[in-house]
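Subject: Interface between my chains keeps coming out wrong

I've been trying for a while to get a sensible model of this assembly. When I model each chain on its own everything looks fine, but I need the whole thing in one frame so I can look at the contacts. Pasting all components below, labels as-is. Any help appreciated, I'm running out of ideas.
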Amino acid sequence: MQHTSTQDTLVGLFVASGIVGLFFLALQVSNLSSFVERDSYTITASFENSGGLKVKSPVSAAGVKIGQVSAINFDPKTYQSVVQMSIDSQYNTLPEDTTASVFTAGLLGEQYVNLEPGGSEEFLKNGGKIEITQSAIILEKALGQFLFKSAEEKK
Amino acid sequence: MIEFLQHLGENTRTSFTKLGRGTFFLLQTISGIISVLARPRLLINQMHSIGVLSFLIITISGLFVGMVLGLQGYYTLSDFGAEEALGVMVAASLVRELGPVVTALLFAGRAGSALTAEIGLMKATEQLSGMEMMAVDPIKRIISPRFLAGFLSMPLLAALFSAIGIIGGQMIGSGLLGVDEGAYWSQMQANIDFQDDIINGVIKSIVFGFVTSWIALFEGYDAIPTSEGVSRATTRTVVNSAFSILGLDFILTTLMFGD
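Reply #2:
Try treating it as a single job with all components included. I did that and got this:
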Protein backbone atom coordinates (compact mmCIF):
# COMPACT_ATOMS: atom_id res chain seq x y z
CA MET A 1 0.00 0.00 0.00
CA GLN A 2 3.05 2.21 0.30
CA HIS A 3 2.97 2.87 -3.41
CA THR A 4 -0.64 4.04 -3.57
CA SER A 5 -0.29 6.32 -0.57
CA THR A 6 2.73 8.11 -2.06
CA GLN A 7 0.76 8.43 -5.27
CA ASP A 8 -2.11 9.94 -3.32
CA THR A 9 0.26 12.37 -1.67
CA LEU A 10 1.78 13.43 -4.98
CA VAL A 11 -1.61 13.93 -6.63
CA GLY A 12 -2.76 15.86 -3.57
CA LEU A 13 0.32 18.05 -3.74
CA PHE A 14 -0.24 18.63 -7.45
CA VAL A 15 -3.87 19.65 -7.02
CA ALA A 16 -3.02 21.83 -4.02
CA SER A 17 -0.23 23.63 -5.88
CA GLY A 18 -2.51 24.18 -8.87
CA ILE A 19 -5.14 25.73 -6.63
CA VAL A 20 -2.48 27.83 -4.89
CA GLY A 21 -1.42 29.04 -8.36
CA LEU A 22 -4.99 30.04 -9.17
CA PHE A 23 -5.32 31.87 -5.86
CA PHE A 24 -2.02 33.61 -6.47
CA LEU A 25 -3.28 34.81 -9.84
CA ALA A 26 -6.58 35.92 -8.37
CA LEU A 27 -5.26 37.75 -5.32
CA GLN A 28 -1.74 38.86 -6.13
CA VAL A 29 -1.93 39.52 -9.86
CA SER A 30 -5.45 40.76 -10.53
CA ASN A 31 -7.56 43.44 -8.98
CA LEU A 32 -9.82 40.96 -7.21
CA SER A 33 -8.75 42.23 -3.80
CA SER A 34 -10.27 45.61 -4.63
CA PHE A 35 -13.62 43.89 -5.26
CA VAL A 36 -13.90 43.25 -1.56
CA GLU A 37 -16.48 45.74 -0.42
CA ARG A 38 -14.78 48.00 2.02
CA ASP A 39 -16.86 50.52 3.92
CA SER A 40 -17.07 53.50 1.67
CA TYR A 41 -19.17 56.54 0.96
CA THR A 42 -20.03 58.08 -2.39
CA ILE A 43 -19.38 61.61 -3.56
CA THR A 44 -19.88 63.09 -7.02
CA ALA A 45 -18.18 65.77 -9.03
CA SER A 46 -19.07 67.28 -12.41
CA PHE A 47 -16.29 67.90 -14.88
CA GLU A 48 -16.33 69.83 -18.13
CA ASN A 49 -14.35 66.95 -19.53
CA SER A 50 -13.30 63.83 -17.70
CA GLY A 51 -10.83 62.83 -20.42
CA GLY A 52 -9.67 59.22 -20.27
CA LEU A 53 -11.01 58.59 -16.79
CA LYS A 54 -12.47 55.10 -16.39
CA VAL A 55 -14.52 53.23 -13.85
CA LYS A 56 -12.09 51.87 -11.20
CA SER A 57 -9.59 54.67 -11.86
CA PRO A 58 -7.95 55.66 -8.59
CA VAL A 59 -9.01 58.65 -6.51
CA SER A 60 -6.16 60.06 -4.52
CA ALA A 61 -5.42 62.87 -2.13
CA ALA A 62 -1.88 64.09 -1.57
CA GLY A 63 -0.68 61.19 -3.69
CA VAL A 64 -2.33 58.49 -1.55
CA LYS A 65 -5.10 56.35 -3.02
CA ILE A 66 -8.23 56.86 -0.93
CA GLY A 67 -10.91 55.48 -3.22
CA GLN A 68 -11.91 54.76 -6.78
CA VAL A 69 -14.24 55.99 -9.51
CA SER A 70 -17.45 53.96 -9.37
CA ALA A 71 -19.42 55.46 -12.28
CA ILE A 72 -19.09 58.06 -15.01
CA ASN A 73 -22.21 59.48 -16.67
CA PHE A 74 -22.99 62.24 -19.11
CA ASP A 75 -25.47 64.78 -17.83
CA PRO A 76 -27.63 65.80 -20.82
CA LYS A 77 -28.78 69.02 -19.10
CA THR A 78 -25.48 70.60 -18.15
CA TYR A 79 -23.44 68.77 -20.82
CA GLN A 80 -20.97 67.78 -18.16
CA SER A 81 -19.55 64.46 -17.12
CA VAL A 82 -20.71 63.36 -13.69
CA VAL A 83 -18.10 61.24 -11.94
CA GLN A 84 -19.18 59.17 -8.98
CA MET A 85 -16.41 58.22 -6.57
CA SER A 86 -16.48 55.84 -3.64
CA ILE A 87 -14.10 56.93 -0.91
CA ASP A 88 -12.93 54.70 1.93
CA SER A 89 -14.96 55.62 4.97
CA GLN A 90 -11.83 55.95 7.11
CA TYR A 91 -11.13 59.14 5.14
CA ASN A 92 -14.36 60.89 6.10
CA THR A 93 -12.89 64.29 6.90
CA LEU A 94 -12.70 65.78 3.41
CA PRO A 95 -13.77 69.46 3.64
CA GLU A 96 -16.77 70.60 1.60
CA ASP A 97 -14.68 72.96 -0.53
CA THR A 98 -12.38 70.21 -1.73
CA THR A 99 -11.16 70.63 -5.31
CA ALA A 100 -11.32 67.67 -7.68
CA SER A 101 -9.07 67.57 -10.74
CA VAL A 102 -8.36 64.94 -13.35
CA PHE A 103 -4.63 64.35 -13.59
CA THR A 104 -2.45 61.99 -15.54
CA ALA A 105 0.17 59.89 -13.82
CA GLY A 106 3.25 60.64 -15.86
CA LEU A 107 3.16 61.59 -19.52
CA LEU A 108 1.52 58.40 -20.74
CA GLY A 109 0.19 56.99 -17.48
CA GLU A 110 -3.40 56.39 -16.50
CA GLN A 111 -5.68 59.20 -15.45
CA TYR A 112 -6.86 59.64 -11.90
CA VAL A 113 -8.90 62.04 -9.79
CA ASN A 114 -6.90 64.18 -7.42
CA LEU A 115 -8.69 65.69 -4.44
CA GLU A 116 -7.22 68.81 -2.91
CA PRO A 117 -8.75 69.58 0.48
CA GLY A 118 -9.91 73.15 1.14
CA GLY A 119 -10.27 74.93 4.43
CA SER A 120 -13.95 74.45 5.28
CA GLU A 121 -15.03 73.16 8.68
CA GLU A 122 -17.88 71.15 7.14
CA PHE A 123 -17.06 67.69 5.81
CA LEU A 124 -18.36 65.96 2.69
CA LYS A 125 -20.99 63.34 3.50
CA ASN A 126 -22.33 60.34 1.61
CA GLY A 127 -23.90 61.63 -1.61
CA GLY A 128 -22.10 64.96 -1.28
CA LYS A 129 -21.07 66.95 -4.33
CA ILE A 130 -17.74 68.59 -5.03
CA GLU A 131 -18.39 72.02 -6.49
CA ILE A 132 -14.91 73.09 -7.58
CA THR A 133 -13.51 70.92 -10.36
CA GLN A 134 -10.77 71.12 -12.90
CA SER A 135 -11.07 69.21 -16.16
CA ALA A 136 -8.60 66.82 -17.67
CA ILE A 137 -5.95 68.39 -19.81
CA ILE A 138 -6.49 67.10 -23.31
CA LEU A 139 -3.13 66.83 -24.98
CA GLU A 140 -4.49 67.44 -28.49
CA LYS A 141 -6.25 70.61 -27.33
CA ALA A 142 -3.17 71.96 -25.59
CA LEU A 143 -1.01 71.18 -28.60
CA GLY A 144 -3.52 72.85 -30.93
CA GLN A 145 -3.54 76.00 -28.80
CA PHE A 146 0.23 76.04 -28.68
CA LEU A 147 0.58 75.69 -32.44
CA PHE A 148 -2.07 78.33 -33.05
CA LYS A 149 -0.32 80.71 -30.69
CA SER A 150 3.13 80.24 -32.19
CA ALA A 151 1.67 80.79 -35.67
CA GLU A 152 0.12 84.05 -34.48
CA GLU A 153 3.40 85.25 -33.06
CA LYS A 154 5.23 84.67 -36.33
CA LYS A 155 2.95 87.02 -38.21
CA MET B 1 -9.33 14.37 -63.48
CA ILE B 2 -11.86 11.72 -62.52
CA GLU B 3 -9.20 10.19 -60.29
CA PHE B 4 -8.62 13.50 -58.54
CA LEU B 5 -12.33 13.92 -57.90
CA GLN B 6 -12.51 10.37 -56.64
CA HIS B 7 -9.66 11.08 -54.22
CA LEU B 8 -11.30 14.24 -53.02
CA GLY B 9 -14.57 12.46 -52.46
CA GLU B 10 -12.90 9.62 -50.63
CA ASN B 11 -10.99 12.01 -48.39
CA THR B 12 -14.15 13.95 -47.59
CA ARG B 13 -15.99 10.74 -46.77
CA THR B 14 -13.22 9.38 -44.54
CA SER B 15 -12.77 12.65 -42.68
CA PHE B 16 -16.50 12.87 -42.04
CA THR B 17 -16.71 9.29 -40.81
CA LYS B 18 -13.73 9.96 -38.57
CA LEU B 19 -15.40 13.06 -37.19
CA GLY B 20 -18.54 11.03 -36.60
CA ARG B 21 -16.64 8.25 -34.83
CA GLY B 22 -14.80 10.86 -32.81
CA THR B 23 -18.02 12.51 -31.67
CA PHE B 24 -19.60 9.19 -30.81
CA PHE B 25 -16.44 8.23 -28.89
CA LEU B 26 -16.54 11.55 -27.01
CA LEU B 27 -20.18 11.04 -26.01
CA GLN B 28 -19.43 7.52 -24.78
CA THR B 29 -16.41 8.83 -22.84
CA ILE B 30 -18.40 11.58 -21.19
CA SER B 31 -21.18 9.22 -20.20
CA GLY B 32 -18.51 6.91 -18.77
CA ILE B 33 -17.33 9.64 -16.40
CA ILE B 34 -20.16 8.84 -13.99
CA SER B 35 -18.75 5.37 -13.37
CA VAL B 36 -15.27 6.89 -12.85
CA LEU B 37 -16.62 8.87 -9.93
CA ALA B 38 -17.56 5.57 -8.29
CA ARG B 39 -13.92 4.45 -8.57
CA PRO B 40 -11.74 7.43 -7.71
CA ARG B 41 -8.64 5.21 -7.55
CA LEU B 42 -8.57 5.03 -11.38
CA LEU B 43 -8.73 8.80 -11.57
CA ILE B 44 -5.96 9.25 -8.99
CA ASN B 45 -3.69 6.90 -10.97
CA GLN B 46 -4.24 8.90 -14.12
CA MET B 47 -3.91 12.26 -12.40
CA HIS B 48 -0.54 10.99 -11.29
CA SER B 49 0.72 9.94 -14.71
CA ILE B 50 -0.85 12.88 -16.58
CA GLY B 51 -0.71 15.75 -14.11
CA VAL B 52 2.02 15.07 -11.58
CA LEU B 53 4.53 13.84 -14.14
CA SER B 54 3.91 16.92 -16.33
CA PHE B 55 4.43 19.16 -13.31
CA LEU B 56 8.18 19.52 -13.73
CA ILE B 57 8.25 20.39 -17.43
CA ILE B 58 5.42 22.89 -16.94
CA THR B 59 7.00 24.68 -13.99
CA ILE B 60 10.45 24.85 -15.56
CA SER B 61 9.08 26.08 -18.88
CA GLY B 62 6.91 28.61 -17.05
CA LEU B 63 9.89 29.94 -15.14
CA PHE B 64 11.98 30.36 -18.28
CA VAL B 65 9.17 31.85 -20.37
CA GLY B 66 8.54 34.36 -17.57
CA MET B 67 12.22 35.25 -17.33
CA VAL B 68 12.53 35.73 -21.09
CA LEU B 69 9.40 37.89 -21.08
CA GLY B 70 10.95 39.94 -18.31
CA LEU B 71 14.14 40.49 -20.30
CA GLN B 72 12.53 41.19 -23.66
CA GLY B 73 9.81 43.34 -22.14
CA TYR B 74 12.40 45.37 -20.27
CA TYR B 75 14.48 46.03 -23.40
CA THR B 76 11.44 47.26 -25.31
CA LEU B 77 9.75 49.17 -22.49
CA SER B 78 12.92 50.95 -21.39
CA ASP B 79 13.05 52.62 -24.82
CA PHE B 80 9.85 54.41 -23.84
CA GLY B 81 10.84 54.94 -20.24
CA ALA B 82 7.99 52.68 -19.16
CA GLU B 83 9.89 49.98 -17.25
CA GLU B 84 7.26 50.14 -14.51
CA ALA B 85 4.76 48.59 -16.90
CA LEU B 86 6.86 45.41 -17.07
CA GLY B 87 4.62 43.66 -14.55
CA VAL B 88 1.51 44.35 -16.60
CA MET B 89 3.17 43.17 -19.78
CA VAL B 90 4.48 39.93 -18.29
CA ALA B 91 1.27 39.14 -16.43
CA ALA B 92 -1.10 40.01 -19.27
CA SER B 93 0.78 37.99 -21.86
CA LEU B 94 1.11 35.01 -19.54
CA VAL B 95 -2.41 34.97 -18.14
CA ARG B 96 -4.18 35.67 -21.41
CA GLU B 97 -2.14 33.80 -23.97
CA LEU B 98 1.10 32.08 -23.14
CA GLY B 99 -0.10 30.33 -19.98
CA PRO B 100 -2.98 28.41 -21.56
CA VAL B 101 -1.43 27.97 -25.02
CA VAL B 102 2.12 26.91 -24.14
CA THR B 103 0.83 24.67 -21.37
CA ALA B 104 -1.55 23.00 -23.80
CA LEU B 105 1.20 22.52 -26.41
CA LEU B 106 3.56 21.06 -23.84
CA PHE B 107 0.75 18.95 -22.46
CA ALA B 108 -0.01 17.57 -25.93
CA GLY B 109 3.65 16.68 -26.38
CA ARG B 110 4.24 15.31 -22.89
CA ALA B 111 0.97 13.67 -21.89
CA GLY B 112 -1.09 13.51 -25.10
CA SER B 113 1.45 11.51 -27.06
CA ALA B 114 1.91 9.12 -24.13
CA LEU B 115 -1.84 8.58 -23.91
CA THR B 116 -2.13 7.82 -27.62
CA ALA B 117 0.79 5.41 -27.55
CA GLU B 118 -0.56 3.67 -24.47
CA ILE B 119 -4.09 3.22 -25.80
CA GLY B 120 -2.83 2.33 -29.27
CA LEU B 121 -0.56 -0.38 -27.87
CA MET B 122 -3.36 -1.68 -25.68
CA LYS B 123 -5.39 -2.02 -28.83
CA ALA B 124 -2.52 -3.59 -30.80
CA THR B 125 -1.88 -6.17 -28.09
CA GLU B 126 -5.63 -6.80 -27.88
CA GLN B 127 -5.93 -5.79 -24.26
CA LEU B 128 -8.99 -3.73 -25.08
CA SER B 129 -10.70 -6.67 -26.81
CA GLY B 130 -9.66 -8.85 -23.87
CA MET B 131 -11.47 -6.49 -21.53
CA GLU B 132 -14.57 -6.61 -23.66
CA MET B 133 -14.39 -10.42 -23.52
CA MET B 134 -14.46 -10.16 -19.73
CA ALA B 135 -17.48 -7.85 -19.96
CA VAL B 136 -15.44 -4.87 -18.78
CA ASP B 137 -16.20 -1.78 -20.79
CA PRO B 138 -12.80 -0.41 -21.91
CA ILE B 139 -14.31 3.05 -22.39
CA LYS B 140 -15.39 3.23 -18.77
CA ARG B 141 -12.33 1.50 -17.39
CA ILE B 142 -9.53 2.95 -19.54
CA ILE B 143 -10.67 5.98 -21.52
CA SER B 144 -12.95 7.97 -19.21
CA PRO B 145 -10.53 8.18 -16.24
CA ARG B 146 -7.78 9.43 -18.57
CA PHE B 147 -10.10 11.94 -20.17
CA LEU B 148 -11.25 13.30 -16.83
CA ALA B 149 -7.69 13.45 -15.52
CA GLY B 150 -6.47 15.41 -18.55
CA PHE B 151 -9.47 17.71 -18.41
CA LEU B 152 -8.89 18.46 -14.71
CA SER B 153 -5.10 18.74 -14.90
CA MET B 154 -4.91 21.32 -17.67
CA PRO B 155 -6.35 24.37 -15.84
CA LEU B 156 -4.21 23.58 -12.79
CA LEU B 157 -1.07 23.27 -14.91
CA ALA B 158 -1.86 26.47 -16.82
CA ALA B 159 -2.42 28.39 -13.58
CA LEU B 160 0.90 27.11 -12.26
CA PHE B 161 2.63 28.04 -15.49
CA SER B 162 1.33 31.62 -15.34
CA ALA B 163 2.01 32.04 -11.62
CA ILE B 164 5.57 30.77 -11.88
CA GLY B 165 6.16 32.79 -15.04
CA ILE B 166 5.08 35.99 -13.28
CA ILE B 167 7.43 35.23 -10.41
CA GLY B 168 10.21 34.51 -12.94
CA GLY B 169 9.56 37.84 -14.65
CA GLN B 170 9.72 39.57 -11.29
CA MET B 171 13.01 37.82 -10.46
CA ILE B 172 14.58 39.10 -13.67
CA GLY B 173 12.82 42.45 -13.73
CA SER B 174 13.41 43.66 -10.22
CA GLY B 175 16.22 41.33 -9.21
CA LEU B 176 18.50 41.76 -12.19
CA LEU B 177 17.35 44.81 -14.14
CA GLY B 178 16.31 47.07 -11.30
CA VAL B 179 12.62 47.64 -11.98
CA ASP B 180 10.95 48.80 -8.78
CA GLU B 181 9.32 45.77 -7.16
CA GLY B 182 6.38 47.73 -5.79
CA ALA B 183 5.65 49.21 -9.23
CA TYR B 184 5.88 45.74 -10.80
CA TRP B 185 3.13 44.36 -8.56
CA SER B 186 0.95 47.44 -8.16
CA GLN B 187 0.79 48.24 -11.89
CA MET B 188 -0.04 44.60 -12.47
CA GLN B 189 -2.85 44.62 -9.91
CA ALA B 190 -4.22 47.87 -11.30
CA ASN B 191 -4.38 46.63 -14.88
CA ILE B 192 -5.10 42.91 -14.76
CA ASP B 193 -8.80 42.29 -14.35
CA PHE B 194 -9.99 39.18 -12.55
CA GLN B 195 -13.00 38.62 -14.77
CA ASP B 196 -11.56 39.65 -18.12
CA ASP B 197 -8.08 38.21 -17.82
CA ILE B 198 -7.83 35.47 -15.21
CA ILE B 199 -11.22 33.83 -15.73
CA ASN B 200 -10.91 33.99 -19.52
CA GLY B 201 -7.46 32.40 -19.30
CA VAL B 202 -8.86 29.59 -17.16
CA ILE B 203 -11.73 29.08 -19.62
CA LYS B 204 -9.19 28.82 -22.44
CA SER B 205 -7.18 26.19 -20.60
CA ILE B 206 -10.35 24.20 -19.80
CA VAL B 207 -11.25 24.19 -23.51
CA PHE B 208 -7.71 23.16 -24.47
CA GLY B 209 -7.69 20.39 -21.84
CA PHE B 210 -10.94 19.03 -23.23
CA VAL B 211 -9.79 19.11 -26.85
CA THR B 212 -6.26 17.76 -26.27
CA SER B 213 -7.47 14.85 -24.14
CA TRP B 214 -10.17 14.04 -26.66
CA ILE B 215 -7.78 14.05 -29.61
CA ALA B 216 -5.12 12.02 -27.80
CA LEU B 217 -7.53 9.35 -26.59
CA PHE B 218 -9.45 9.11 -29.84
CA GLU B 219 -6.31 8.83 -31.97
CA GLY B 220 -5.11 6.01 -29.71
CA TYR B 221 -8.46 4.26 -29.74
CA ASP B 222 -8.81 4.67 -33.48
CA ALA B 223 -5.21 3.70 -34.33
CA ILE B 224 -4.45 0.92 -36.79
CA PRO B 225 -3.30 -1.85 -34.43
CA THR B 226 0.22 -2.22 -35.77
CA SER B 227 3.45 -0.62 -34.63
CA GLU B 228 3.39 1.68 -37.63
CA GLY B 229 -0.24 2.58 -37.01
CA VAL B 230 0.49 3.49 -33.39
CA SER B 231 3.45 5.61 -34.40
CA ARG B 232 1.34 7.46 -36.96
CA ALA B 233 -1.44 7.96 -34.45
CA THR B 234 1.02 9.47 -31.97
CA THR B 235 2.28 11.90 -34.59
CA ARG B 236 -1.28 12.84 -35.53
CA THR B 237 -2.08 13.52 -31.88
CA VAL B 238 0.68 16.06 -31.53
CA VAL B 239 0.03 17.71 -34.90
CA ASN B 240 -3.75 17.83 -34.61
CA SER B 241 -3.61 19.00 -31.00
CA ALA B 242 -1.25 21.83 -31.93
CA PHE B 243 -3.50 22.90 -34.81
CA SER B 244 -6.68 22.80 -32.75
CA ILE B 245 -5.07 24.59 -29.82
CA LEU B 246 -3.78 27.45 -31.95
CA GLY B 247 -6.94 27.69 -34.03
CA LEU B 248 -9.23 27.60 -31.01
CA ASP B 249 -7.01 30.12 -29.26
CA PHE B 250 -7.57 32.56 -32.10
CA ILE B 251 -11.32 32.05 -32.01
CA LEU B 252 -11.52 32.30 -28.22
CA THR B 253 -9.37 35.43 -28.20
CA THR B 254 -11.61 37.19 -30.72
CA LEU B 255 -14.66 36.21 -28.67
CA MET B 256 -13.19 37.15 -25.29
CA PHE B 257 -11.07 40.21 -25.82
CA GLY B 258 -12.78 41.68 -28.86
CA ASP B 259 -15.32 44.00 -27.28
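Reply #3:
Confirming on my end. Residues 57-253 of chain B form one domain.
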